[in-house]
Amino acid sequence: MTTSSSAPYPIGTPGVPWGAAERALWLSRQVRHRSYHDDVAKAVERLSDRFDVEVYGQLDYPPDQYRLFAVRSRSWRDDVPVALVTGGVHGYETSGVHGALQFLDRHAAQYANKINLLVAPCVSPWAYERIHRWNANAIDPNRSFRENSPAEESAALLRLVAPLKGRFLLHVDLHETTDTDESEFRPALAARDGKTSEPDQIPDGFYLVDDIENPQPAFQQAIIEAVSKVTHIAPADANGQIIGSDVVAPGIIRYAMRQLGLCAGITGARYTTTTEVYPDSPRATPQQCNDAQVAAACAAIEFALRAPR
Fold this sequence. Notes:
This protein is of the alpha/beta class. The chain has a single domain, classed as 3-Layer(aba) Sandwich (Aminopeptidase), CATH 3.40.630. The chain contains 8 helices and 10 strands. It has helices at 20-28, 36-47, 94-106, 125-130, 152-161, 179-192, 217-227, 286-306, and strands at 51-61, 64-73, 82-87, 116-120, 168-176, 207-211, 241-242, 245-246, 252-255, 271-277. The strands form 2 sheets. The protein has an 8-stranded mixed β-sheet with strand order 1-2-4-3-5-10-6-9, with helices on both faces. α2 (36-47) runs parallel beside α3, α3 crosses α8 and α7 (217-227) runs antiparallel to α8 (286-306). It is globular.
């Protein structure tokens, strides 16, 4: 487990929220490390012979533009429910993106005619390229899934799912918790908002976030059991918590999804979860992280299909 340092964040004045100058300075320091076109767009294109692919929006962050891709079951049926899988809401959380693509490539076909799949593999492509949590406006998309969202990444996904409201049976949102949450992203958040960053621990292992307003313990447990065959499950800390939230069952905590503007709260589905993989563990490889995301998606779908409706 990793804790952060108490050194001041290098942008802004402690205790004073950022203004336009600080945001501009922050943006000027962001560097492209990888290619959304090569890693995601080309992978989606290769799937187009087996699935229906659509562009559900476009991000304009001059000089960059990004098309947002959604992948649907080709055998879409009006008499079966819908499952949503999302990845890359936080672009730096790599296995969420590659896990979603791996799920489509290797496993989605087995659910044909059983459930309609809608997959948005990389919700935040600008952040994917820069290995960052925020978008180019220093906004966290995963706190912005609400009406009149300030994040176009979030607004575009909300528009995509709106026509299907009432038909979603489940939604699996694929995330990671990384060492950089403590070393960079939480200190940056505190600096941006003029607050103090308190060091915390990063859990070593996989865990899930259930919904306080719609807890589904058996569903979450089925996912934990499946993922435990791929990678280790995060233990609770000395306070019986994971990232400051009480552990309600091994590897499971709960958040108020809709109140916090989280992606997992957008569908109104009966079954929802946010996965959290720990890619910085010495006990996990990048492929294990992808496999854990896939195992979670498959276990979620299989549980939901077995459950009485």
